[in-house]
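Protocol step 4 of 5: obtain the predicted structure for the target chain.
Materials: sequence only (see below). No template structures provided, no constraints applied. The aim of this step is simply to have a reference model before the mutagenesis design in step 5. Sequence pasted as it appears in the construct record:
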Amino acid sequence: MTSMTDRRRHTKADRWPSVMARALPDDWEVLAEGHPGRTAVWDDPIEGLHKNGARVLQALLETHRPIDLVILMLGTNDLKARFGLGAHDIALGLQRLVLDILRGDCGPNGVAPAVLLAAPVAVEEVGVLQHIFAGAAPTSRALPDLLRDVAARQHTGFIDLSAVAKVDPVDGIHLDTAAHAAIGAAMARAVTDHLT
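Step 4 output (structure tokens):
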């Protein structure tokens, strides 16, 4: 972990997109667009409107086109108590983003890119963040089945990250280095299966 004044939790090399990139063929480019606190489609009244993923999605897609595959891994921040959302609403928010991607033309030859929908690692209500995420644990455990259904309806790929990793027990939300390594390896396998 980095120092308290450095808001990054891990070095770039240790984060799951970098782990995934190292496991993929050298001529495959991985672009990470993670943003701390990002929600799927919800404006955050405390942290700011810029946390809403729907507000930035099209700009990100157009910036990086052509894109073969978009990995959509959101939902953890939607679990914050301030939003008061159930698992069904979170899944519907993610479905909206999937549909926005699939309606676009940012893939190869002006078609939509493929999508891999990832159910985030289930959270635990412990540590310094437990009040912010009060009630989040059971909701997060309900998400994978709902997101699997979204992926099936929209004909996208799906991966349940709780099957390969657990959250850091220090705060119950973030991922430790071992979790990043496991997710990176699992994502590399899922991406390879989806694109080949």
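Step 4 remarks: The CA atoms of residues 31 and 129 lie 29 Å apart. Residues 136-154 form the longest helix (19 residues).
Proceed to step 5.
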